[in-house]
Amino acid sequence: MAKIMMNLTKTFVAAGVLLCATIAGAKEPPASFADLVDKLTPSVVNVSSTQTVEGADNQLEGLFSDQFPEGSPFKDLPDMLEKFYGQKGLDSSPVPRKATSLGSGFVIDPDGYIVTNYHVIEKSEEITVTFSDGTTAKAKVMGKDSKTDLALLKVDTKKKLPALEWADSEKARVGDWVMAIGNPFGLGGSVSVGIISARARDINSGPFDDFIQTDAAINRGNSGGPLFNMEGKIVGVNAAIFSTSGGNIGIGFAIPASMSAPVIKQLKEEGRTHRGWLGVKIQTVTAEIAESLGLKDEQGALVLDVTKDSPAAKAGVLAGDIITSFDGHDVQTMRKLPRIVADTKPGRKVPMEILRKSEKKTLLVTITELEEDEDTKTTESSAPESKKEDAISGTRKIYGIELAALNADLKKKFNIDSASGGVVIVSVDKTSDAAQKGLQRGDVITAINQEDVKDLPKAISLLEKAKEMKRKSVLLLVSRAGDTRFVAVNIEGK
User: Fold this and answer.
1) How many domains does the structure of the chain reveal?
2) Which among 270, 299, 328 is the end of a domain?
3) Going along 300-346, which residue ranges are E strands?
4) Which residue of 6, 172, 243, 414 has the fewest CB atoms within a 10 Å radius of its CB?
5) Which of 328, 349, 358 shows the shortest CA–CA distance to 340?
6) Inside any domain, residue 410
7) Looking at the domain assignment, is residue 437 inside a domain?
């Protein structure tokens, strides 16, 4: 018995040693960040910019008018002011005024190149950089990029400045320690520490959102400042906070170095960015869309529309194709494709893998340069509703929508482009999934499950076929006021 107990004790001790060794293998936070702060602070600057804004009417204008009841001793105050000053109140005309915005930045080149956010210096007339030792210098804008919210400044300097290095942010992991240094609320030289809370965040601030989320305290004024890893390299550029109060609540966002570094390089070399352009309008592949097409997963970017004479059109891309890979990079989500394309050098011919009606195809596409007007997003508008509920002959109801063949009368009734083909929705059951997905009278269905719809019998046939194949939903390509989108409508149990 004693021998057995001794063996058990040895076993537990060995397990305890193994557990301690495993825990010890994890990275521990340093006892102090002071050495790192001392090393990095001289490279971080405060950025203040001034611009002239149109002044509002004088705040006193109207202050004394119609504010006092009859008989009030102050009722005659406006006339007294006019007699004394020559006008009622003070100057009531709009007066331009100087506004100042504060932010942060950091030295990226010893010759005086400084990185900050675009929104910190937007419309600025004068920019002043303040270093950690209190010295100041005027800066000029060498380049700016609103799409990534980055800008590059330059100060004249007689000595080499302490410059920082970019980190490989692709290797950054959720849970890694990070440190922010910046100018919150204009206080200057403030340090905060936290971890990377999440990666690849999309906060709808631009077409290339891929933010690092951190709980290191970031506030107003930290914009443009660096987010460091524990090696003292820049893992991201602090750009935004999520807050209900205007102050830090532990959710801040930084532009990753993998995106920032190439943009800053282009701004330094050419003063502008060069981005690739494919020429497609895309949509997320949702679970319902994937199911309606018989796909196993929700990966890829679903092509809604192809711009005429664009690189995609010349390569043979069609609406309904699902782009699954571009230039060797997997397109796991719709949001990833614009960034991969933008990073592609214009003029390159690259392979692009697509799924077309469940068949894999590889297309070669020659990327051209993105022009500003080519990146504008179309907004969805509603087709006009007819106030008169009149009967329309030759319709069919299925899955909560009533369809009719598209003819001249219906085109006029719903203000539909004469070039449109397909079938038109003339009514929608308010309790149906179609209504929940936003379908409405006047919408035109041009394709069903990636099959073109020429007439009403074809549409009904494709809808009934989906039911026979035991699909839970059916994929409709819907056109409204010149805009198109894919809508997956649930047909399960109907």
Assistant:
1) 3
2) 270
3) 301-306, 322-326, 329-330
4) 6
5) 328
6) yes
7) yes
In a domain, 117, yes or no: no
Distance CA 36, CA 41 (A): 8
Please classify residue 92 by burial: count the beta carbons closer than 10 Å to its beta carbon, then call 0-12 exposed, 13-18 middle and 19+ buried. middle
Residue 334: domain span: 277-375
Which of 213, 240, 270 is where one domain is finished? 270
Q: Considering 119, 145, 169, 443, which one is annotated as catalytic?
A: 119
Does some domain include residue 460?
A: yes
Asked if residues 361 and 331 have their Cβ atoms less than 8 Å apart, the reply is no
Q: What CATH code is carried by the domain that includes residue 295?
A: 2.30.42.10
Whether this model's pTM surpasses 0.70 = no
Please indicate whether residue 119 is annotated as part of the active site.
Answer: yes
Q: Of 149, 209, 215, 321, which is the active-site residue?
A: 149
Q: What is the pLDDT along the chain (494 residues), one digit of tens a residue?
A: 555 555 555 554 444 444 444 444 456 777 889 999 999 999 999 999 887 766 554 444 444 444 545 555 555 555 655 554 455 444 555 556 666 778 999 999 999 999 999 999 998 889 999 999 999 999 999 999 998 999 999 999 889 999 999 999 999 999 999 999 999 888 888 999 999 999 988 887 778 888 999 999 998 889 999 999 999 999 999 998 887 777 778 899 999 999 999 999 999 999 999 899 999 999 989 888 888 888 888 889 999 889 999 999 999 999 899 999 999 999 988 888 998 999 898 999 999 999 998 899 999 999 999 886 444 333 333 333 333 334 455 788 888 899 988 888 888 888 887 666 789 999 998 888 888 888 999 899 988 888 888 888 888 888 888 888 888 888 999 988 878 889 989 887 65
Distances (CA, A) of 112 to 44, 115, 238, 379: 12, 10, 20, 42
Q: Please tell me the distance from the alpha carbon of residue 221 to that of residue 224, in angstroms, as a whole number.
A: 8
From the candidates 101, 104, 190, 223, give the one annotated as an active-site residue.
Answer: 223
Q: Residue 375 gets which letter from DSSP? A: G
Residue length, the chain? 494
